[in-house]
Amino acid sequence: MSDLTGTTWQLVEFQSSDDRIGTVRPDKPQNYTLMFDASGRVAMRLNCNRGSGAWAAMPSGPGGGSLTFGQLAVTRAFCPPPSLDGQLARDMEYVRSYVQRSGRLYLNLMADAGTYVWEHPTQ
Protein backbone atom coordinates (compact mmCIF):
# COMPACT_ATOMS: atom_id res chain seq x y z
CA MET A 1 0.00 0.00 0.00
CA SER A 2 1.41 3.37 -1.01
CA ASP A 3 1.30 6.56 1.03
CA LEU A 4 -0.44 8.11 -2.01
CA THR A 5 -3.51 5.88 -1.66
CA GLY A 6 -6.65 7.87 -0.93
CA THR A 7 -5.03 11.27 -1.46
CA THR A 8 -6.24 14.15 -3.62
CA TRP A 9 -4.02 16.89 -5.04
CA GLN A 10 -4.36 20.19 -6.89
CA LEU A 11 -1.76 21.42 -9.39
CA VAL A 12 0.50 24.26 -8.22
CA GLU A 13 3.00 24.47 -11.07
CA PHE A 14 5.14 22.72 -13.64
CA GLN A 15 8.88 23.27 -13.24
CA SER A 16 10.59 22.62 -16.56
CA SER A 17 14.28 21.83 -16.76
CA ASP A 18 14.27 23.75 -20.06
CA ASP A 19 15.08 27.40 -19.30
CA ARG A 20 12.99 28.49 -22.31
CA ILE A 21 9.88 27.11 -20.58
CA GLY A 22 10.76 27.77 -16.93
CA THR A 23 7.95 27.51 -14.38
CA VAL A 24 4.35 27.39 -15.62
CA ARG A 25 1.43 27.94 -13.24
CA PRO A 26 -2.20 27.22 -14.09
CA ASP A 27 -4.47 30.24 -14.04
CA LYS A 28 -7.10 28.18 -12.15
CA PRO A 29 -5.33 25.51 -10.07
CA GLN A 30 -8.66 24.10 -8.86
CA ASN A 31 -9.28 22.93 -12.47
CA TYR A 32 -6.38 20.45 -12.26
CA THR A 33 -6.74 17.68 -9.71
CA LEU A 34 -5.34 14.22 -9.16
CA MET A 35 -6.93 11.54 -6.96
CA PHE A 36 -5.26 8.21 -6.16
CA ASP A 37 -7.74 5.50 -5.13
CA ALA A 38 -7.04 2.24 -3.32
CA SER A 39 -7.93 0.08 -6.34
CA GLY A 40 -4.91 1.39 -8.28
CA ARG A 41 -6.90 3.87 -10.36
CA VAL A 42 -6.23 7.57 -10.75
CA ALA A 43 -8.90 10.17 -11.56
CA MET A 44 -7.83 13.51 -12.96
CA ARG A 45 -9.52 16.78 -13.71
CA LEU A 46 -7.68 18.39 -16.62
CA ASN A 47 -9.29 21.82 -16.87
CA CYS A 48 -12.44 21.13 -18.92
CA ASN A 49 -11.47 17.48 -19.51
CA ARG A 50 -11.31 14.38 -17.34
CA GLY A 51 -8.80 11.55 -17.31
CA SER A 52 -8.49 8.18 -15.64
CA GLY A 53 -6.12 5.26 -15.67
CA ALA A 54 -3.98 2.95 -13.59
CA TRP A 55 -1.21 3.97 -11.21
CA ALA A 56 1.43 2.03 -9.30
CA ALA A 57 3.88 3.26 -6.66
CA MET A 58 6.75 1.57 -4.91
CA PRO A 59 7.84 3.56 -1.85
CA SER A 60 11.62 3.62 -1.43
CA GLY A 61 11.73 5.66 1.76
CA PRO A 62 9.67 8.08 3.80
CA GLY A 63 7.58 10.22 1.46
CA GLY A 64 8.94 9.05 -1.86
CA GLY A 65 9.59 6.33 -4.38
CA SER A 66 8.87 5.22 -7.91
CA LEU A 67 5.55 6.05 -9.55
CA THR A 68 4.11 5.12 -12.91
CA PHE A 69 0.83 5.78 -14.64
CA GLY A 70 -0.76 3.52 -17.23
CA GLN A 71 -2.25 4.94 -20.39
CA LEU A 72 -4.86 7.53 -19.48
CA ALA A 73 -8.32 7.63 -20.99
CA VAL A 74 -8.95 11.36 -21.51
CA THR A 75 -11.96 13.28 -22.78
CA ARG A 76 -11.18 15.55 -25.72
CA ALA A 77 -13.15 18.75 -25.19
CA PHE A 78 -11.51 21.97 -26.37
CA CYS A 79 -10.46 23.96 -23.30
CA PRO A 80 -10.00 27.70 -23.91
CA PRO A 81 -6.37 28.83 -23.69
CA PRO A 82 -4.33 29.00 -21.64
CA SER A 83 -4.81 25.37 -20.68
CA LEU A 84 -2.41 22.70 -19.47
CA ASP A 85 -4.81 19.81 -20.16
CA GLY A 86 -3.02 18.38 -23.20
CA GLN A 87 0.47 18.77 -21.78
CA LEU A 88 -0.47 17.24 -18.44
CA ALA A 89 -2.26 14.27 -20.05
CA ARG A 90 0.76 13.58 -22.30
CA ASP A 91 3.33 13.97 -19.53
CA MET A 92 1.75 11.54 -17.05
CA GLU A 93 3.19 8.55 -18.93
CA TYR A 94 6.68 9.98 -18.32
CA VAL A 95 6.34 10.30 -14.52
CA ARG A 96 8.89 8.02 -12.86
CA SER A 97 9.12 9.10 -9.22
CA TYR A 98 7.45 11.09 -6.50
CA VAL A 99 8.42 12.92 -3.32
CA GLN A 100 6.09 14.28 -0.64
CA ARG A 101 7.60 17.19 1.26
CA SER A 102 6.12 20.07 3.26
CA GLY A 103 2.55 19.24 2.23
CA ARG A 104 3.38 19.09 -1.47
CA LEU A 105 3.66 16.24 -3.95
CA TYR A 106 6.41 16.40 -6.56
CA LEU A 107 5.97 14.20 -9.64
CA ASN A 108 9.27 13.91 -11.48
CA LEU A 109 9.41 13.20 -15.20
CA MET A 110 12.00 10.85 -16.68
CA ALA A 111 15.29 12.22 -18.04
CA ASP A 112 15.00 15.28 -15.77
CA ALA A 113 12.38 16.74 -18.12
CA GLY A 114 10.62 18.55 -15.29
CA THR A 115 8.51 18.30 -12.17
CA TYR A 116 4.81 18.74 -11.53
CA VAL A 117 4.13 20.23 -8.10
CA TRP A 118 0.80 19.49 -6.37
CA GLU A 119 -0.73 20.34 -3.00
CA HIS A 120 -3.85 19.33 -1.13
CA PRO A 121 -6.83 21.40 -2.31
CA THR A 122 -8.12 24.05 0.04
CA GLN A 123 -11.74 23.80 1.04
Trace the largest sheet across and list its strands. Answer: 1-3-4-5-6-8-9-10
Low-confidence stretches: none
Q: How many helices?
A: 1
Strand content: over 45%
What are the secondary-structure elements, in order, as H or E? EEEEEEEHEEE
Provide the helix percentage: under 10%
The count of DSSP E runs of length 2 or more, i.e. the number of strands, is 10
> CATH fold name, please?
Lipocalin
- Multimeric status of the protein: single chain
- What separation lies between the terminal Cα atoms? 27 Å
Question: Which structural class matches the secondary elements?
Answer: mainly beta
Judging from the principal axes of the Cα atoms, what is the shape?
A: globular
Key structural traits:
123 residues; mainly beta; Lipocalin; 1 helix; 10 strands
List the helices and strands and how they pair.
Blueprint: E1 8-16, E2 23-24, E3 32-36, E4 41-46, E5 49-61, E6 64-69, E7 73-74, H1 85-91, E8 95-101, E9 104-109, E10 114-119
Antiparallel strand pairs: 1-2, 1-3, 1-10, 3-4, 4-5, 5-6, 5-7, 6-8, 8-9, 9-10
Verbal overview:
By secondary structure, the protein is mainly β. The protein has one domain (8-119): Lipocalin. It is built from one helix and ten strands. It has one helix spanning 85-91; strands at 8-16, 23-24, 32-36, 41-46, 49-61, 64-69, 73-74, 95-101, 104-109, 114-119. It has an eight-stranded antiparallel β-barrel. The longest helix has 7 residues, at 85-91. It is globular and about 40 Å long. The model has no long low-confidence stretch (mean pLDDT 94).
